[in-house]
Amino acid sequence: MTDNDWDDDANPWTITGMTQPFANDWFRIDAHDVIHPNGQPGTYGVIRIRRLAVGVLPIEPDGRVHLVGQWRFPLGRYSWEMPEGGAEPGEPALACAKRELAEETGFTAGKLEPILEMDMSNSLTDEMAVIFLATDLRPGAARPEPTEVLKRRSAPFADVLERVADGRLRDSMTVAAVLRAHHMAITGRIAPGLARAMLGR
Amino acid sequence: MTDNDWDDDANPWTITGMTQPFANDWFRIDAHDVIHPNGQPGTYGVIRIRRLAVGVLPIEPDGRVHLVGQWRFPLGRYSWEMPEGGAEPGEPALACAKRELAEETGFTAGKLEPILEMDMSNSLTDEMAVIFLATDLRPGAARPEPTEVLKRRSAPFADVLERVADGRLRDSMTVAAVLRAHHMAITGRIAPGLARAMLGR
Questions:
Q1: CA–CA separation, B163 vs B183, rounded Å?
Q2: Which of A67, B130, B152, B160 is the most buried (most CB within 10 A)?
Q3: Which residue out of A3, A15, A20, A47 would a mutagenesis test of the B interface target, given it has the greatest number of B Cβ atoms within 10 Å?
Q4: Which of A11, A124, A148 is facing B71, going by the closest CB pair?
């Protein structure tokens, strides 16, 4: 263990074998036999996610944020979030962001700007996410996928930010997007008029 | 689809069967047979994570943040992050935060404050995270788990924040924690002296 450098170290793991005990259209399990960094044999099951996660935070000139609500089956709970989806193989993140925004809200965005990239749960999965800020919005008809039952609402940015801060909005991509948009508004990385509207100044 | 209420809807899914095709010490797969909200039959594989994810952002009075670096096997990449770990069954999040902070950095914190809760990847997993801000730090000897090879470093909060903003720090819990700490410093939710040190004002 050394202190105070940003240097990357080399891979300390050795892979001695692998099986794939489960796969579906969304992910597969790579069950590795490994030699741990400390030299001991073991196993490491990695959940490989087939799609890039893409999220879009749509904000109006007056600071209102558009959100969608849906029942999240894995949680057994309802969740309000920004529009999100998965990029199909070969689909660029930007194209996916446009598609999900249109499908879930009907909006097209005059400006779609990448504002954050994340590794979602890096001890267990290889899932990555790209988040966009959508502005200059033009309304249209939403057309959610047949398996999606969505509600929509908008709320002032300040209200959405408070719901993130107190845990009422809990989706990690939405949490990160809203906090990043706040950071951008505070640090002059969002147009002054919109920043003022978001911050209520 | 309705507009403009925060109300939750009832569960629109029906579960007609389930198998558990894979399990290890970290997660299991619940492969459900379902009736989709639109009435069509299908399947929904849920990755059930056995541990609550816990992260700790340790900040010194002068605004320096302590980070740990490690090779993340699922990504095949090195990653700098705040101290993180999983709460064992029955272990409260706060106790886990204390333990991970001590194991990975040696520090004990005079103040450990929960600042964020998130659902990590809610279309595929039930993983949840709780994030703490650690201040009033007292140094000690780090004692990482035998399977962990960690480097440590500290950096000014402003540097860490820029690395989050530009995607060099990508771990989702760290990203959210750093942006939430910025939000707290800006909005008077961190002691004024520390907030000034973090923001360089």
A1: 16
A2: B160
A3: A47
A4: A11
Q: Tokens 């400006």 sit at which residue?
A: A111
Q: pTM for this one?
A: 0.96
The set of residues, in sequence order, having a beta carbon less than 8 Å from that of B125 and lying 6+ positions away, is A47, A74, A121, A125, B27, B46, B47, B48, B49
Q: List the CATH code of the domain at B52-199.
A: 3.90.79.10
Please tell me which residue of chain A has the smallest CA distance to B156: A4
Q: What residues are paired with A28 via a beta bridge? A: A23, A48
B132: nearest Cα among B51, B58, B52: B58
User: For chain A, which residues make up each domain, given as ranges?
Assistant: 14-49, 52-199
Q: Which of chain A's residues have a Cβ under 8 Å away from the Cβ of B147?
A: 36-38, 40, 42
pLDDT in tens, B120-176: 999 999 999 999 999 999 999 888 777 778 999 999 999 999 999 999 999 999 999
Residue A111 bridge partners (DSSP): A135
**pLDDT at residue number B5:** 67
Q: Choose among B193, B133, B201, B92: nearest CA to A187.
A: B201
Distance from CA of A64 to the nearest CA of B (A): 12
3-state SS record for A34-73:
EECCCCCEEEEEEEEECCEEEEEEEECCCCEEEEEEEEEC
As for the ipTM of the complex, it is 0.96
Strands (E), B36-190: 41-49, 52-58, 64-72, 77-81, 84-87, 108-119, 128-138, 151-156
For residue A128, the chain B residues in CB contact (below 8 A) are 170
Tell me if B146 and A36 make a contact (CB, 8 A cut-off): yes
Contact B124 A165 (CB under 8 A): no
> What is the Cα–Cα distance from B11 to A71, expressed in whole angstroms?
6
Find all residues with CB under 8 Å of A148, minimum gap 6, and list them. Answer: A70, A104, B37
pLDDT in tens, A47-89: 999 999 999 999 999 999 999 999 999 999 999 999 999 999 8
Q: Are A81 and A169 in contact (CB under 8 A)?
A: yes
CB contact under 8 A, A1 and B45: no
